[in-house]
Amino acid sequence: MTEVSINKNMNLSEHYTLGEVTKTSVKTADGNIPSHVAIENLKNLCENWLEDLRYSYNTLYPSSHLERSREISPCASLSRDDNGGARDDNPIIISSGYRSPEVNKAVGGAPTSNHLTGCAVDIRCEGFEQALRYANILMDIADGTKRDYDELFIERNKQGRYWIHFAVRPKDNRRRTSFIIS
Fold first, then answer.
1. Burial of residue 145 (number of CB atoms within 10 Å: 0-12, 13-18, 19+)
2. Bridging pattern class, strands 151-156 and 162-167
3. pLDDT tens digits along 133-144
4. Per-residue pLDDT at 62
5. Suppose 167 and one of 38, 104, 138, 151 were both cysteines; which one would form an S-S bond, judging by CB atoms 3.0 to 4.6 Å apart?
6. Strand residues in the chain grouped as ranges (E)
């Protein structure tokens, strides 16, 4: 049997690669390889939402978070915005993106999860404050661009870790927003 693989270095946008949004610690026979349609959905999320989130967050909340961000990602740095002002260049960390049916089942995902179609990402947050800021920025992007999202959930697990679950479908977005403790 021939092993199928994907180009994990393929850029979906300026700061996001296919490898970042398909990584998983779950070892499966299917290799967690997205379809071409799922890749297009991931590209839409990265180009039209995550890049704007990254830019806005780094512009609105400069270097006070730089040291904490460097603990998460050593590549966090300070850059200049279009007007020459200081702006952080901290990454938005994706903890989960596309999930194959096998991966989704292994992690306890919903059978109809937007992760299965490449329409959802989970964004790691340093705490509740950062989760709120990310959520607010994403809602502002939706309002300002007249684009809609399907799901925007602030989630917390039993260990107290926070993340944003964010989903955008090609059509029929429901603009569901919630706070979930699992």
1. exposed
2. antiparallel
3. 999 999 999 999
4. 79
5. 151
6. 78-80, 86-88, 94-96, 120-124, 151-156, 162-167, 176-181
pTM reported for the whole predicted model: 0.85
pLDDT on residue 129? 95
Confidence category of residue 61, pLDDT binned at 50, 70, 90: confident
Distance, in Å, from the CA atom of 90 to the CA atom of 77, rounded to the nearest integer, reads: 6
Backbone angles phi, psi at 162, to 5 degrees: -110, 150
The token duo for 177 is 């927003």
Report the C-alpha gap between 168 and 158 in whole angstroms. 27
Closest CA to 34 of 18, 49, 45, 10: 18
Copy the structure tokens of residue 1. Answer: 């049997």
Residue 152 to residue 137: CA distance in whole angstroms: 11
Residue 160: pLDDT above 90? Answer: yes
